[in-house]
Model the fold of this input.
Amino acid sequence: MKDVFKVNNFDLIRLVAALQVAFHHVSSHLKVEYKGFLTDISMLFPGVPIFFFISGFLISKSYENNPAIKEYARNRILRIYPALIACTSISLLSVSLTGYFTKINVTIFHVVAWVVGQISFVQFYNPDFMRGFGTGVLNGSLWTITVELQFYVLIPVLYYWIFKAAGDKTRQNIILASLICLFMLISAGRHGLYSEHSGKFLFKLWGVSFIPWFYMFLLGVIFQMNFERMYNILRGRFLLILSAYTCLAYFTKSFLGWDIGNRISPVLYLLLSVLIFSSAYSFPKLGDYILRRNDISYGVYIYHIPVVNLFIYYGLVSNISFVLVALIITIAAASASWFLIEKPAFKLKKHSLNPLQAGNNIMPGLG
Done:
């Protein structure tokens, strides 16, 4: 089962999820209301929840294989920060070159404090002096990095305090399933409060904590912990599960008013998790064949909003061609990030499950 685990489509799935997020953000911010069958279908597969499931699946396995805290932390830092720092620097430079900073009243102290937040762990912080540029946020997608960093911290805690105390696998599954149910209920409760409280500061802060999203991450963990059982049940059944999920998602969204997107109904997300796993292990060599062990998904995710900001600032909106050009530029930036920054950084990792060395067995997508 070890070798079977390593051959999967997770990199390809993450790229599709990143493109889904990028397309809908770009078209929305550039005020292009493109309606069509493919757009409607893509809305049923929200990128951020997909990321969180894959993260739980892969990061838990990474920690199991190498629980040394220093190496675990080092590998996580190399996965997130080199590309993040480069993206933030380029984004800041692009804003500066437009002359925007000369038009507003801002001190160097405020700029430095904001940049430190962007490249540390409070990426969701956005100062008032940026409200007049582009979307009003330097890079609004980065709030998920704050959440992801919390997941990274929680994995060692989860394994140490819960899994060791639980002893056998059955008790571990019971505890994990109980946590999933608990955080699923919390998430559902937050959805119910969203319309009334979404503008309040504490509610926004809750949204960038791990709490509303933890059940998504934990579902990835429990699938990974029970890999052999899930693999035997779900491998090769992608088309069947895809059909079932698409029909259910479309029906519940259209006729029952269930949420799709980041606030996806927890019940619907259970089936989406099954679909993600099945798609990873149906035609499992497809991702490697298409991507050739390259992963630009992170770059697509972190660069698309800075690109959009420039388009908005220069008035390049309300035309589908601008959407296509923005996406092409995003993919080009993501490719440069991968080959010049992320891939070299991966080679500095210790005991990584994704060594990026030809001829080695690797686990695509595993940081």
Observations:
- Confidence is low (pLDDT under 50) at residues 355-367.
- The two ends are 20 Å apart (CA to CA).
- The chain is about 70% helix and 0% strand.
